[in-house]
Design brief:
The structure is a homodimer.
Chain A lengths: L12 E5 L2 E7 L8 H4 L5 E5 L4 H12 L6 E6 L6 H6 L9 E3 H7 L2 E4 L3 H14 L5 E4 L3 H8 L9 E7 L3 H11 L9 E7 L5 H11 L4 E4 L2 H13 L4 H16 L4 H30 L3 H30 L2 H12 L12 H11 L10 H20 L4 H23 L1 H5 L4 H25 L19 H10 L11
Parallel strand pairs in A: 3-4, 3-6, 4-5, 6-7, 7-8, 9-10
Antiparallel strand pairs in A: 1-2, 2-10, 8-9
Helix pairs in contact in A: 2-7, 5-6, 9-12, 9-16, 10-11, 10-15, 10-18, 11-14, 11-15, 11-16, 11-19, 12-15, 12-18, 13-18, 15-16, 16-19
């Protein structure tokens, strides 16, 4: 992670996070005037695909580059069902901003490959062949590297390979960019990685890309660390674990005698409302100190019961991702999709209760339940500890375990339920959440909640490491880098 | 599967199953007198390990060979915690029937490797080196082959490799053997496979082994088909799926307003009691015809809702097993066990209710719930269809999907709950059941049960293939081969 970053265009800042330092670049609309310099030599940026990130990044880029000569052109498969949606967003063949994927790839100087992971795995060879020598290939996460590793292949020599990975799903990237028009600094932070630099200006291309899609702060990573933490994180606390956690809590509360609406309020609403908002503004330590003494005792007891069961599943996920088995699992699932399309996850009685609760919601009356908070924070801390143990940078750990959850994803569950959060993400994420949520649910119900009946949790006391944990400093620094607006979702 | 079997000792019979034929051998106590001939040249059989199969097979072999000169000797790791248990069962160093694993392997003419899958994976090289040239290595399932395939290795040239795979966990193999002392024909059926025959008598060694542990009927398979169907089957309807099914049904019944004890009766008790017993005696078609007209309609409706969701998870499991990813997953979990021991699965409120229900049980009053039957049989049929599609022999399909479930495993859940069934199996099985049960639970709750609210299940009608399915004939044939006693479990 200690790569040196040098840019001819943007200023590099050194950030202190806990006891480490990391180079960052601050974005902002005031830097849009530097984009022609960052993209020097680039006449056209091809944005390939129209899934989650495609529409967001294509539109943000088009608007950020409106005053330049750089053309932003969307490329789609000939039989793609997305032609209409792209046209509705103003990308048309008549204006030379929409075309066939293969044409757009071969005529663009910079190609952002935002098609699904499965499509990348299926078509990577022809895509590599279509790229011009010296072109810059951009990806928005490291799946393709993981896939290439899983089959013993590598990138072609004649291109640059860079990544800009927004720390939020496509709709958030678009939504906060739009809010950023009136409020400077609104946007989704991103990490960038330089995997291969054959022309010497790959860094400026990557940083220009990140600035142009509206990232307020740009962190550094490697593509390998990125795909591991990304594929892991969405199976963990970002999507899979949080889904399993709220299901297990809701059903436990009902079993303990709560009426269903109240149980939904004390589990899902509490987590996506006051718990997420407090963490976002005040950090994990701030959440804890906001509790009363009685609540603190409940929080600690629950934390101690939930930490190791969550860690057990998290380590299994990290191992599966590292062995590239999880990537093979995604490819396999995609091959089965024609026969078994992705199923609906929120047609169960619990989520019908949830819809009714949301319809009647009084935002200020949502309780901050200390048991719900204890389970959720224990899972976050287990994920943080594991990622640090595996050598990930503090900014990546904080983003993939806390910030993306409370600032980008949980607001979607708060707005319209669990499917609205999970199914707005990539296919890889949606599959991973479906695969792992039930595991968190079961292990919490089997190991953590029975342990709550006991006064002492088997001599284990993971909470003792909570107060002095370096993540609190890192989160305070990251909170200062947080955009000045919350994500605002409307129907 | 169309290997020719020839034996100098035992008679081969040709069995017609549906529209196929398979060679079988019938066992029985009347054949014990042939064992010296089958084991000609063998002075000692080493039984390595004392887990699930080890104690059962070692004791059965010792008793079956009591009148011969063949010594049955148990081999254990020097620091194994099982020395006392083996001694309590009468295997001692003083009588030359207990010793160190490496010694027993190198001095035995036939070595039955019944240590855990993880231990086989860890120690296979030294074990191969310790075997005498011309020795017969026996395994009781194909995990080691799958593991060798996953790392690109193979068996040593200088040994025979055979398998005898009892279609039930170790305690059942022992229990039915004991019952067989008074009732000829009681025992657990087995499959056998000849993987490598360097000496020309591997088939007789394998068949002798199967007869000696008390198998009434011995089917033929290959080691590859065996490990795939075995590792798949225990993740599917034998353990993982049945666990997920009863959890999902119990919680659905409670949600629908049933008192907890009644919900347990209508889900778990119904499945492990009358449903399993009816299938065992009358087959799947017999179960259906035993229902009233109203019950039949409920059964069909539920079957149609549950079949495809179950099939979706089953295909995912089969793919993961075939890619050997599931084997890597087991190895990884075993490496994590020092930090995360296998957790308790029956300390949840549902299984506490179950204990109380069992304590008050009136066996004759347990209801045959047609919804529970519909889900369970749909999952069995999905597994049957998948295994047939993948080319497995009818006897293997029937055993791994139906017979092992209703005759060997479900009686354990009926006796003492889900952990008593799952945790009496191998580590590989216990891990697989923990991994996949939650997936079946979630997909049934997310896709199947909501579909029950609709009069028509989306135009899908898998039940239309039920009446004429060839499995019914295969099960009738297998029912004729069924031991004349049920497994009898006592506290």
């Amino acid at each position: 992670m200690s790569q040196n970053v040098t840019s001819n265009v943007f200023s590099i800042e050194i950030l202190s996070l806990a006891d480490t330092t990391e180079p960052i670049v601050r974005g902002g609309r005031n830097l849009f005037s530097l984009l022609p310099q960052a993209f020097e030599g680039i006449q056209q940026i091809g944005v390939i695909g129209w899934g989650s990130q495609g529409p967001a990044q294509a539109q943000n880029l088009r608007e950020s580059l409106a005053d330049t000569a750089i053309n932003v052109k969307v490329g789609l498969r000939e039989n793609s069902t997305s032609w209409e949606a792209a046209q509705a967003a103003g990308f048309t063949e008549a204006t030379n901003t929409l075309g066939r994927m293969d044409t757009v790839i071969s005529e663009s100087d910079m190609v952002l490959l935002l098609i699904s992971d499965a499509a990348q795995a299926m078509h990577y060879e022809e895509i590599f062949n279509q790229l011009q020598p010296g072109a810059t290939l951009g990806v928005s996460h490291g799946f393709l590297l993981g896939f290439l590793q899983s089959i013993g292949k590598t990138w072609p020599d004649h291109i640059n390979v860079v990544a800009v990975c927004p720390k939020g799903m496509g709709p958030s990237v678009r939504r906060l960019y739009e809010q950023g028009k009136s409020i400077n600094g609104a946007g989704i932070n991103a990490s960038f990685a330089i995997e291969q630099d054959t022309t010497g200006n790959a860094t400026d291309h990557a940083l220009g890309w990140a600035v142009a899609i509206g990232s307020p702060v740009i962190f550094q990573t490697t593509l390998e660390n990125e795909y591991k933490s990304d594929i892991f994180g969405e199976r963990g606390v970002l999507l899979g674990a949080v889904h399993g956690i709220v299901e297990s809590l809701y059903h436990s509360y009902v079993k303990a005698g709560m009426p269903e609406a109240q149980a939904f309020n004390q589990s899902v609403e509490s987590l996506t409302g006051p718990i997420s908002k407090t963490i976002s503004k005040q950090g994990l330590w701030g959440l804890y100190t906001s509790l009363s003494d009685t609540q603190k005792r409940t929080f600690i007891h629950t934390y101690n019961a939930a930490y190791f069961p969550c860690l057990e599943i998290l380590i299994e996920i990290y191992d599966d991702v590292s062995r590239t088995d999880e990537i093979r699992s995604v490819i396999g699932a995609c091959q089965r999709h024609p026969r078994f399309p992705m199923g609906t996850i929120d047609n169960t009685p619990m989520w019908h209760v949830g819809k009714a609760v949301r319809d009647e919601r009084d935002e200020d009356a949502i309780p901050l339940n200390p048991t719900t908070a204890g389970v959720y924070v224990a899972c976050m801390m287990a994920q943080i500890d594991l990622l640090l143990e595996k050598g990930h940078a503090f900014s990546e750990v904080a983003n993939e375990s806390v910030i993306e959850a409370v600032d980008s994803l949980n607001p979607y569950m708060h707005y319209k339920g669990v499917a609205y959060m999970i199914d707005n993400c990539s296919t890889t994420a949606r599959l991973g959440a479906r695969k792992w949520a039930p595991r968190f649910d079961y292990i919490l119900q089997q190991l953590a909640y029975p342990a709550l009946e006991k006064p002492d949790i088997l001599g284990n006391n993971p909470f003792q490491h909570f107060a002095d944990h370096p993540i609190h400093h890192a989160l305070r620094v990251c909170a200062d880098l947080r955009p000045p607006v919350d994500i605002a979702l409307h129907g």
